[in-house]
């Protein structure tokens, strides 16, 4: 696990440095933040694999920082807190944390918790790569055959689902309506124009403004593509 990068957010620099030493000795890469706002900035700038978050931090509390992180990522978050009551642990887990360690803690326990959360997350992540296709706010569960935009379940017909799945699996690639038809209908493109009707209906269901789509876009004279703005071909 030596290639994993861990963000330590702790306003007490002595404690942060001590944690950093423990984890560096185990081969982890470490970055630091000393308040909630800095934690968000570092997270957006770096590729972080796990977050250790103190709750009592300035500028933006640990609770608020966790909530904001959960809006953009599912990486493991372990709370470090002097509060040891079960109620506090439940609150911490309910706002999106994966684990809770009470200060003062045994360095061996910290390392074990870090490794455990990384193993669990990346085992799930490998499964997610096979079962979940997620681009922006649009998410397909290929096992359940469901589509969500944000938290809203979208009702798609079988053909709409198959078209969307095909384009999302090959995001940023332009396909002609004939290619889409042949892939989805699994037959020669006798009536390829029907694809445009289904595309219009999909847009009405997943786009904020179907007339100005940000996902299902046309390449004039060529076909359609599902745009993943974070991935470039």
CATH top level class name of the largest domain: Alpha Beta
**SSE string, helices as H and strands as E:** EHEHEHEHEHEEEEHHHEE
Name the CATH superfamily assignment of the largest domain.
Response regulator
The CATH architecture designation of the largest domain is 3-Layer(aba) Sandwich
Q: Count of helical segments?
A: 8
The helix/strand class is: alpha/beta
Name the shape in a single word: elongated
| Overall domain count | 2
Amino-to-carboxy terminus distance: 29 Å
Strand order of the largest sheet: 2-1-3-4-5
Largest sheet: 5 strands, parallel
- Roughly what percent helix? 40-55%
Beta-strand residue fraction: 15-25%
Number of strands: 11
Radius of gyration, in Å, reads 22 Å
Overall pLDDT level = 84
CATH topology of the largest domain: Rossmann fold
Residue runs with pLDDT of under 50 for 5 or more positions: none
Please characterize this protein's 3D structure.
The chain is an alpha/beta fold and 233 residues long. It folds into two domains: 5-130, 3-Layer(aba) Sandwich (Rossmann fold), CATH 3.40.50; 136-226, Arc Repressor Mutant, subunit A. It is 43% helix and 20% strand. The protein has helices at 13-25, 36-45, 62-70, 86-94, 107-131, 158-169, 177-185, 194-206, and strands at 5-9, 29-33, 50-54, 77-81, 99-102, 132-135, 138-141, 146-149, 152-154, 216-219, 223-226. Strand 4, helix 4 and strand 5 form a beta-alpha-beta unit. Helix 6 crosses helix 7 (177-185) and helix 6 (158-169) packs across helix 8. The model has no long low-confidence stretch (mean pLDDT 84).
């Amino acid at each position: 696990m030596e290639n994993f990068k861990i963000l330590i957010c702790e306003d007490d620099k002595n404690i942060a440095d001590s944690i950093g030493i423990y984890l560096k000795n185990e081969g982890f890469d470490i970055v630091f933040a000393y308040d909630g706002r800095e934690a968000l900035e570092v997270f957006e700038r770096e590729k972080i694999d796990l977050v250790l978050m103190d709750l009592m931090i300035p500028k933006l509390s640990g609770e608020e920082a966790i909530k904001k992180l959960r809006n953009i990522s599912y990486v493991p978050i372990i709370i470090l807190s002097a509060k040891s009551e079960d109620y506090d642990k439940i609150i911490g887990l309910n706002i999106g944390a994966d684990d809770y360690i009470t200060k003062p803690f045994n360095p061996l326990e910290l390392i074990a918790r870090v490794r455990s959360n990384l193993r669990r997350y990346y085992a799930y992540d490998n499964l997610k790569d096979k079962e979940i296709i997620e681009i922006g706010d649009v998410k397909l569960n290929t096992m359940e055959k469901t589509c969500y935009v944000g938290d809203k379940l979208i009702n798609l017909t079988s053909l709409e689902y198959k078209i969307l799945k095909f384009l999302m699996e090959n995001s940023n690639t332009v396909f002609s309506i004939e290619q889409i038809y042949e892939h989805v209908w699994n037959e020669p493109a006798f009536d390829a124009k029907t694809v445009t009707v289904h595309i219009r209906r999909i847009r009405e269901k997943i786009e904020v403004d179907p007339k100005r789509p940000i996902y299902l876009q046309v390449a004039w004279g060529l076909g359609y593509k599902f745009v993943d703005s974070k991935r470039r071909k």
